[in-house]
What we know:
Order of helices and strands: HHEHEEHHEHEEEHEHHEHHHHHHH
Number of strands: 9
Largest sheet: 5 strands, parallel
Distance between the termini: 68 Å
Oligomer: single chain
Shape: globular
Structural class: alpha/beta
Helix content: 40-55%
Strand content: 5-15%
Amino acid sequence: MTRPQPIRITTPDEEAQWAPVWADVEAFEKIITRIRETFLERDEMLDVISLGLIGGVNGSVIGPPGTGKSKILETLSMAVEGFRFYYGRGTPCMTPEYVFGPISVAGLKDDDFRLANKVLPAPRAWAHQAHLALFDEGSRMPKEIWDSMLSLLEEHEVTVGSNVYKAPLLFGMVATNEDLSEMQAAFDRFALRCECRYVADLDSRMQLHRFYSGYGTANEKLRDARPRPIALDAIMRMRAAARQVEVPDDVLLAADEVQTDLKRRGIELSDRRCFPQTWAIVRASAILNRRKVASVDDLAPLALSYWTTQEQKLEVRQIVGTKAATIAFELESLYAQALSEGEKALRALNANPPKTTQELSKIGIDAATALTVLGRKISALKQGQNGKAINPADEVRVAATATKVDRLLVEVKKNLIK
């Protein structure tokens, strides 16, 4: 299977040349939004996939099994016409046949160690035939499989015997249950990283209960929720456009200031991460936000790249957030405040010694007032930020977060205010 060739935009300064790209971005956003609505609390992973796919870099994900990682990538592969998807779970005794398919028996008779090139039913494929790939439990893979995987992800080719197979891979992801600090040298090759934990928010859990408790099997429900597909050419057009995004000096300087600030705090980044990976991510962010010229806001996704441990992740988000004050950062901060106010108030119900009805009502009124103010701030984000219109993905996030805060407000009023 040959690797798709980039569709080049010959005159990027002419708006007419960019119109098809913005149409592709809009169609791609609809797909990602539909997947977000089906796989709840997976925003980080979907951001990593979107940026990696358009920016031409790979990602890693930390989290336990059973969180829908493979289903998300499989759903995306079925939303792009012609996309194929590989999924493999790492084990210490993993063999090349498990990743690349069976070895040709006819070839062995001729002393030619080559692949049989069997084709799996769509959308599944062997790793060297896939456009998207997920290597689960990557830390358990044998060294020779790990080396072959890195060759596939970085060089887009794999060598079996004396035969070299070119791969069409556009985005690969490695999943692990382990802290990345133990494998930093290996995982530094993956530009983007995220966590994927079990669904925790009550509102999300109730939505999933309703979704899966109805008629039909889980696979039937996921199949019915699939987004309308787009053409493979659309992905290639966006990737080509990302490489032509201009990066002004103020954005270069802001990125360097972030990296320098992190170094002062003991978070040192490799040259690979500081330079080629950083600008691939920033350019992808610009395209996904319909910009031909990158802005400081496009540094926001670097919070998905510059951390290794959980402690670093929080610090990196704070430092990057001071340079890129995006709606996503503001929304996360406001919701964290709302959750803190609501939970603190509801804990008063189980206080020891018990609170009086009057005390509970006062706590409830104070919390309700704070939640109302925070809810208004969240709703105000629908108007955009710093004179910029809100994009469709952020609009969905704002609406969902506003609903969660409204429900928290109702819970506080119902249980505390008498």
